[in-house]
Inverse folding.
């Protein structure tokens, strides 16, 4: 139970740091170093206690990295550019909310579900070998 709380805190901290960076706010280097050291500490603790699958931490970090990739793609594709529609301000506000806030919240919730529901993570990682793949 304690390791799940520690992993949940790690996910919330790393996604908060990414959220701060996406919204162009200032990040202190000590925050980054602290989160990295915290991640290494809980990974080592989990490695020796074997309470959660060791692959889970890497899976969670990949999902957090997806937030950074999503932001880079949004900037490169010009998602936040103004449009020539009549309700441009409303559309701009919705695009900003979806890209900058909603995706971060959704990924964080999904990561917390992976931590607190071990069967969900196992179903994602493993595919039953007795099922046939049907192709049409």
């Amino acid at each position: 139970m304690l390791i799940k709380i520690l992993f949940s805190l790690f996910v919330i901290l790393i996604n908060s740091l990414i959220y701060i960076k996406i919204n162009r706010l200032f990040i202190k280097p000590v925050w980054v170093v602290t989160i990295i050291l915290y991640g290494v500490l809980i990974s080592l603790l989990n490695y020796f206690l074997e309470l959660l699958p060791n692959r889970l931490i890497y899976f969670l970090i990949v999902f957090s990295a997806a937030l950074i990739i999503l932001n880079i793609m949004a900037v490169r594709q010009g998602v936040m550019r103004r449009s020539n529609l009549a309700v441009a301000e409303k559309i701009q506000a919705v695009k900003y909310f979806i890209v900058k806030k909603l995706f971060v919240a959704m990924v964080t919730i999904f990561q917390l579900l992976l931590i607190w529901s071990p069967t969900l993570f196992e179903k994602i990682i493993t595919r039953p070998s007795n099922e046939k793949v049907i192709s049409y």
In short: The radius of gyration is 18 Å. Helices lie at 2-22, 29-49, 55-77, 88-116, 118-125. The mean pLDDT is 82.
